[in-house]
Input
Amino acid sequence: MGGWKKMKFNRSAVGKCLIVASAFMLVFATLGWAANDDKESSKDQSDIVKRIDKAGDVLTEIMGTPDKAIPDKVLSDARCIAIIPSMVKIAVGFGGSHGKGVAVCRTNRGWSAPAPVTITGGSWGLQLGGQAIDLVLLVMNQKGMDSLLSSKFKLGADASAAAGPVGRDAGADTDWKMKAEVLSYSRARGLFAGIDLNGSALTQDKDETRVLYGGKFYPFKDILAGNVKAPADTHQFLATVAKYAPNTPGQARNESERTTTTTASKH
Output
């Protein structure tokens, strides 16, 4: 009888130990999953910030050669700017293209916080031999801006698009103002030129928006209208945009000329 009670006691003790052990395992597993989720989220945010920083580098490099860059006048008149850095490639077996980047718009207080974007397109990429390229889109008027703020629009359908003029002297040509709501540019293998992106669709990247803004989702319109605070990691990019496309028209050209003059005087 005593042996039976002892066996029963042992079984009960073992059962309690298993329950406690299972509880500990569940807690540690949960903590492990949470840690992995935090690491993954941190990695995702780091990737997005790197892409945004690269977008700033693309603008700096393009504007570093004034005679072959986006005209100051065109850039200073742009209502919104979208940059897709080194992400666009031709899908194997298709003429389609896909890339990720960032967009910003002018507000009364300067440039808006950045909004992650995705661009998908047709066979235009074949003009560049299927390689990765940098893209820059400039929204030039209110109609184009309204199309952009809708969070998804197709170039050539919802907004007229045209290859943008290149070079300092091209800014004197006002034809581009009457041609399109969106001017588009591409850079590949060191060559920079306007490109026809008709048929491409630009949309808000909702997943990356959540990651960039700490798990919160903000609609395109709220971000680009200046109603959302820019993350600290994006301030350098915004400073680069403001440098080449300040809110005061003509300031970009004056800054460029002043820098050139200063550099020349040092030599």
About this structure: The chain has one domain: 62-250. The CA atoms of residues 256 and 262 lie 10 Å apart. Residues 62-250 form one domain.
